[in-house]
Predict the 3D structure of the following.
Amino acid sequence: MSDTTAYQGAGATPYEPGFGDYVQLLKPRVMSLVVFTALVGLLVAPVHLHPVEAFSAILFIALGAGASGALNMWWDADIDAVMKRTARRPVPAGKVAGGEALGLGMALSGISVVMLWLATNWLAAALLAFTIFFYAVVYSMWLKRSTPQNIVIGGAAGAFPPMIGWVAATGSVSVEAFLMFALIFMWTPPHFWALALFMKEDYHTAGVPMLTVTHGRRATRAHILGYTLLLVPVALGAAMTSIGGPVTLAVTLVLNAWFVLGAWRIWHRDESMAEADKYAVEKAFFRFSLLYLFLHFAAFLVELALKSAGMGGW
């Protein structure tokens, strides 16, 4: 990918990237999930920050997530260009030069880590720095293109935000913080493998060794079921800690029963069924997985509100 400004065609004037193009570099959809889970981790912590400190912490965690996204888009521009799902991203689409994405990512990385340190504590800043490094270097530059277990190990990067939020408030890691991390970590493989099932050709074309490419659909479906079953005790464990309670436990039981049922349907389905039907089952599971994670963390907030009113908790 050339670092020169892209042209829209022969004789056309150079394309000037707008504010929206730079926002897209930060992966705003991913950032929204990071912000939400980090906010939950910060709010349910037993130590409460001043509102200005809390806002600053979430802002700098969000900037760190955006930095990771920009660095990922810089590095993955070549494979993003040949995948339908990612071809419209700013760098492969020629809207933003690769060097600009790299520069923005590096600048935001430094700003977010230093400012989080100043706003909260060194441990939260260190965890944010490690998260950025893990996503940009360990996952994007190494795991993603070298092993079908890329999303399993790489999922740790997306699992750190609630722990960072908790540490920003308390200055230490606890069982609750670890279980929030583990909830996202165990959720990530079935979530992304469901996406990989109905986007298999994209990964095959790009040469990314996703499990669907290296081991096929049947093995991927079995892995989805296996990781979904392993996710259940983690979710139940989080519901039984100080951040949980009866409401959280009830939500957890319903969500996990439905999630396991969806994974079972994917695993048990007839491989000879029409491609359109396979796509529908896989996409439905993928969409529910997003709702699954959101409702789990929303339940922690509901439990917090009930505790504040003297009605929740164990």
In short: Residues 275-308 form the longest helix (34 residues). The chain has 15 helices and no strands.
